[in-house]
């Protein structure tokens, strides 16, 4: 008797939960980043940015097309590996996500973008800077940061005009991001009338750079530019010091993290490193970014590394387009997303051009003092 009653009650409870679930539509948003491997600290930072956006949207309550919706974050790890990236993309497509934020690296974002394009699912990358990403003719690809042409070119010019580099050496990690940004840096140096004395390469898993650096030392560079990520840049800076190379060290957003001093084993001298982040806020907008960083710290007990604010804005831009279109169906809201203009995010004002690139993307130049990142200037 008792058993039957329990079964009946369980059945009623199931009906009740089914009733509330159907009253609230669930909209799935995918996020992909490397939450394992050498740059897991950056992947986790990205994922936290997405989590924060979703939690805040759910707390606020969002209505799309007259229906109350609840957002669900499906987070995947691509380990910074292109093969793993396409597998993660396929998994999200099969899970019927309404949109995707990611991936972190250009090397994973580019192959994954084909899968999302074929499925008609919008993809907003908060951090992939290789120009190819938005130049494949896909209608589904968007990005929230300036690309390598802008990033590398600006850094190249800065090396010659501001840092007065006379003999500049370039190293890259042979990834889509590292090689791409290094190529554009080299072009920027030449355009500003400077010259590069060496071009070397390594890979994104390397830890020993003695051979490359010994080769460079003979050329007496005053600036060494590295196209790659902070997990490789840290040990490289340490080994430069061991070999007595006194050059300034430059890089793009991949090295421009809060972890870099730690990854170099404390080998960085003040103002030795100059890096740029694709993005930047000034004046009034800085207040919004500072408030975001404080909320992030309270929520995750961690400082923002690099891209979390861009991920946060990416999620919110997707949702704003859904609200405006009155639908979370990609077919209906994708055209609205493409026409995003003047969206006020924590990373600045977001307007997409016809390729899905951000218009008038800013860059922020940084250096490090006493183990902390310090802003030098915002350049456009």
Automatic annotation (TrEMBL):
GO terms for biological process: amino acid transport. Residues 1-23 form the signal peptide. It comes from the Bacteria. InterPro entries: Leu-bd (IPR028081), Leu_Ile_Val-bd (IPR000709), Peripla_BP_I (IPR028082). Residues 27-371 form the Leucine-binding protein domain. The keyword Signal applies. Keywords: Amino-acid transport, Signal, Transport. It holds the Pfam family Peripla_BP_6. Belongs to the leucine-binding protein family. This is Branched-chain amino acid ABC transporter substrate-binding protein. The lineage of its organism: Bacteria, Pseudomonadati, Pseudomonadota, Betaproteobacteria, Burkholderiales.
């Amino acid at each position: 008797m008792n058993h039957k009653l329990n079964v009946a009650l369980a059945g009623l409870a199931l009906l009740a939960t089914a009733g509330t679930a159907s009253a609230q539509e669930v909209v799935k948003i995918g996020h992909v980043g490397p939450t394992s491997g050498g740059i897991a600290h950056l992947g986790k930072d990205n994922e936290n940015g997405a989590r924060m956006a979703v939690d805040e949207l759910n707390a606020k309550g969002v209505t799309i097309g007259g229906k109350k919706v609840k957002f669900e974050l499906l987070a995947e790890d691509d380990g910074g590996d292109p093969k793993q990236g396409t597998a993660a993309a396929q998994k999200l497509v099969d899970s019927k996500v309404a949109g995707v934020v990611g991936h972190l690296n250009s090397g994973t974002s580019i192959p994954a973008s084909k899968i999302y394009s074929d499925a008609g699912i919008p993809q907003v990358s908060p951090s992939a800077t290789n120009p190819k990403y938005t130049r494949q003719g896909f209608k589904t690809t968007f990005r929230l940061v300036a690309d390598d042409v802008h990033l590398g070119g600006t850094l190249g010019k800065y090396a010659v005009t501001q840092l007065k580099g006379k003999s500049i050496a370039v190293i890259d990690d042979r990834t889509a991001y590292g090689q791409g940004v290094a190529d554009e840096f080299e072009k920027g140096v030449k355009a500003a009338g400077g010259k590069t004395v060496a071009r070397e390469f390594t890979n994104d898993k390397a830890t020993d750079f003695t051979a490359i650096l010994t080769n460079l030392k003979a050329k007496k560079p005053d600036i060494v530019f590295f196209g790659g990520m902070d997990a490789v840049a840290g040990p490289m800076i340490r080994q430069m010091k061991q070999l007595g190379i006194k050059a300034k060290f430059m890089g793009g957003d991949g090295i421009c993290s809060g972890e870099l001093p730690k990854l170099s084993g404390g080998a960085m001298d003040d103002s030795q490193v100059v890096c740029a982040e694709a993005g930047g806020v000034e004046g009034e907008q800085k207040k919004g970014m500072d408030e975001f960083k404080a909320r992030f710290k309270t929520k995750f007990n961690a400082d923002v590394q690099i891209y979390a604010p861009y991920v946060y804005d990416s999620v919110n831009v997707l949702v704003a387009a859904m609200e405006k279109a009155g639908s979370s169906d990609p077919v209906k809201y994708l055209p609205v997303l493409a026409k995003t203009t003047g969206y006020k995010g924590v990373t600045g004002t977001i307007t997409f051009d016809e390729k899905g690139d951000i218009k008038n993307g800013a860059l922020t130049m940084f250096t490090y003092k006493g183990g902390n990142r310090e802003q030098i200037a915002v350049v456009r």
